[in-house]
Design brief:
By secondary structure, the chain is of the alpha+beta class. The chain is built from 4 helices and 10 strands, in the order E-E-H-H-E-E-E-E-H-E-H-E-E-E. The longest helix is centred in the middle third of the chain and has 15 residues.
Length: about 190
C-alpha cells in the first residue's frame, strides 16, 4: 500500500512504500548516516539479528526521484517466556538532511496503521518519550518487561493496539518470527 506524504519545506511530496530487496543498500547507508556506527550494538539489534521484519511491516519513504529518504521496520517478538506476541519497532530513521520535514511522523503513522490492519495487538520500541508519545507510546505498560542487554528502562515504550494486550505481560523480550535464510553453502572443487 502506498501513501503520499506532505513534506514541509523540502520537497513537494514523498511516497511511503513497502521495502524491497533493491532498497537494502540505500536503507543501510541511510541508517549509517542517521544513526552512526554504533547502531548495530544496540539491544534492539539483538532481537533483529538473524530475523526478517514482520510480514508486510517494512517501509521506506522515497522522494520524487525515487531515492530512499526514510525507513521503518517492525519485528515479531514474544513478551517473556511463553508470553504474548507483539511487535518491536525500529529502527525509524530519516535522512539527516530532511530532518523535521515530517517524514518520520508519516512513517510512524503508516507503520502503526498497517500493524492495526494486519491484526497485531501491541508495538514496543526503545526511544524518546517526547517524540513517540505523540503517537500514543508510553512507558506505563512496560514496567514488567525488559530488553535483552543494556538499555535505558525509561526509554522502553509501548502502544496497545488492542486494549489490554499488555496486561500481565512480563519478562525479557525474545526474538520471534521469520528467520533470515542461510546463505547457500559454497562448494569447493577438488
Amino acid at each position: 500500500m502506498e501513501m503520499p506524504v506532505e513534506i514541509v519545506d523540502r520537497a513537494p511530496a514523498s511516497l511511503i512504500v513497502a521495502e524491497t530487496a533493491a532498497d537494502i543498500a540505500a536503507r543501510e547507508a541511510l541508517l549509517d548516516r542517521a544513526m552512526g556506527p554504533k547502531r548495530k550494538k544496540k539491544s534492539s539489534e539483538k532481537l533483529r539479528r538473524g530475523r526478517r521484519p514482520s510480514e508486510g511491516l517494512a517501509f521506506v519513504a522515497r522522494d520524487a526521484s525515487g531515492a530512499v529518504t526514510g525507513t521503518v521496520r517492525l519485528w515479531d517478538v514474544v513478551l517473556g517466556e511463553g508470553g504474548p506476541t507483539a511487535l518491536l519497532l525500529g529502527p525509524l530513521a530519516v535522512d539527516p538532511a530532511l530532518k523535521s520535514a515530517g517524514i518520520g511522523s508519516a512513517l510512524m503513522r503508516h507503520a502503526v496503521a498497517e500493524a492495526v490492519r494486519l491484526g497485531h495487538a501491541a508495538i514496543l520500541l526503545v526511544g524518546d518519550a517526547p517524540y513517540y508519545g505523540r503517537f500514543g507510546f508510553s512507558a506505563t505498560k512496560t514496567g514488567s518487561l525488559a530488553m535483552p542487554g543494556p538499555y535505558e528502562r525509561h526509554r522502553l515504550l509501548a502502544l496497545e493496539l488492542v486494549g489490554g494486550a499488555l496486561s500481565g505481560a512480563q519478562g525479557t523480550l525474545k526474538a520471534a518470527g521469520r528467520k533470515l535464510k542461510a546463505p547457500a553453502a559454497l562448494t569447493v572443487a577438488a
